[in-house]
Amino acid sequence: MKKSFLPHSRKGFTLIELIIVIAILATLASIAYPTYMSIQDNAKGTAAKKACLDIVEGVTRYAQDNNGMLPYDAKEVEPDKKDQIYLETSAGKDARLIQILTNREEDDDNRLNVTRDTYLRSDEQDKPFDGLYIDSSDGINFYDPWGHSYQVVLCEEEKGCIDPFNAKKRFRGKKCLVYSLGSDGEGMGMTSSTAGTRKPAKGAAAEAEEESIEDNIYSWKNAK
Q1: Residue 116 CA: distances (Å) to CA of 62, 102, 154, 159, 164
Q2: pLDDT in tens, 192-220
Q3: What is the pTM of this model?
């Protein structure tokens, strides 16, 4: 019988080839990851913008159905000297705003949403992100896609809300402004305790403030 001298066929990769393949995949991943994250942030930004507008619409519709009354519990919070009310959409900080708009008030004897209409619709979430979330204490919260409360400004003044980032600017006809703090969770405007007292920042402090609001998302304007 003749012996074959043909080389045996090789199966699999050598160690060097595996290293090369892994290096190529790592390079491709490093290129694709920033793009993927950018797409994710854009999608979250779009969702946050819609939620801001949904809250404003809910407040507006509630006021129309209730002779101009705004959806908050006056026993928990009162307007400041300029008739502004500053709320956050988390339990204990929203003066029942979210309970009222989502028609989830528990105390029927002190119900403010007397028509029992749902002015803000949102699926209940399993985790504290992107919509309605009921916490372990049965607190009702409404979070942005990054897990932060929305910031809400209500105004009893007929002239409309004051811009929380510019006390000299008022939005005529707007009784509600809503904004998200974005992915960094920073960049809050004036509150009832700082309105009219906070001095404009200068120099490095002003730059830091400007940077903190770069990713904010607003109901009344487009982000920068």
Answers
A1: 10, 9, 21, 29, 31
A2: 777 666 666 677 777 888 889 999 999 99
A3: 0.82
